[in-house]
Fold each of these.
Amino acid sequence: MNKLMKNEIKQLIKQFAKQVIKRIKEDDLSGLAAQTTYYLFLSLFPFLIFLISILAFTPLDEATVYTSLNAILPNQTARLLTNIIKEVLSNGSLTLLFLAMISALWSTSKAIKSLIKGVNRAYDVKETRSFIQVQLITLVTTFTIPLLIFTNFMLLV
């Protein structure tokens, strides 16, 4: 009886593994993951430039920002970011802020759209929302994430 249960469990595990592999291939999981990663990585640098540019328009002084960075980052990373922050803060350009914001929003919204597409495909759900609804969801999510990160940063300082 015990040996029979072990065989049944092995069969169930094999069936489950086959089903998972089949679904991964059908849903093109690696392709969607690559697409999402690409857009998120693409949005990282404009987003960082945007955050640093915002610092020029806040009442925070540079010393507080540098002290906070040194407290939470490794020394070499903090030194590298300190130089970049000094350069961006000394210019304080609204054009840089605007361009960084637009490029970060575009690439982040593309990443959110690919996440929506991936979740829909994983759950075998056909997209029934209108183009406008998907764009609104994407924009709200895209604006909410940086807002939460900025709020978190302000709470650290």
Amino acid sequence: MRALAPLAAGLILANASLALGAAGDQPPAAKQGMSQRMMMDMDTDKDGAVTREEFLAAHSRADVHFAELDKNKDGAITRDEWLAEPAGTSRAERFKQLDTNGDGRISHEELEARRNARFDAMDNDHDGKLTAAEMRSARDSVMRQHSQVPNPR
């Protein structure tokens, strides 16, 4: 649970596309099934679309990870707290990206802004809802980006 993949999915997804991208090594049919399952899980009113509220609620697990990382319980994650977690792909660089105001801490507000920006980027038609097609498109975009990044091992 404290591994980077669930942490990244919770904190950065705020970024559903990263969670969808976790199916990277699976065949296309399995990837589509995973995005469909995630869509069904997030679509709590079962209307075939994910609203911003449903998207943000589905990522509430990030608050649990946030609390786990915030060792001194001051309401923010410091660079030292972030880097103390198991190493992954450029954690220091990821911290810089999430610390948007550059104060050396990741606040709940910074994560919430990231979640909202991610939702907006995924909502291609800007109707305030994510369709399965928009979620697949976001997943595919993340997969293309990750395939271009060399493995740090």
Amino acid sequence: MNGLGVRAMDVEYEPFSAGWSDAIIAVASGSARANPIESSLLEDFGVIGNAVHALLAHPEPLRRVARDLARVPDLVEETLRFDAPIQIVFRTATRDVELAGVRIPQGSVVAPLLGSANRDERAFPEPDRFDLERRARGHLAFGLGVHFCLGAALARLEARVALEALVPELPRCEPVGDPPEWVDSFLVRGRRRLELAPA
């Protein structure tokens, strides 16, 4: 448990209506309205868990980063691109606009799919390949422009510190039990729990 009483990778999400700031998050200690600190922690857990899962599924990148921890920032960026914890956001069109031949009237709610944008082959060749050599900094995991995540630098730092501690242990670990259960959410992508044991 961390200081907020949230168990990493053991978080349940409830549907929301008006946006992420109104999301209801039921945590192990009870229910609480999401606030920026809790939201940031949940996203960080997702990045860390998604990175560990990706490394265990891709032995060569795991060997490379385990040999050279200076590659952990590349690991964080490629994980954010490859398997971002936030897959979709909601926005309201402030004016009439046409995108890809589709008219979007002012006031319409649109749902940009960040996970899909991060797999766009025009921006990321071979987008379904987990590749630490990739220049992944152009991903949209933290949004863009005025909606760019204010906690992006902190999330990167937290993920880097956690992964620098975890990565050296991973070559001697393997997942335990059934395939990991996903968090039941169309908004957040991460595993509810990812258990490891010595290989």
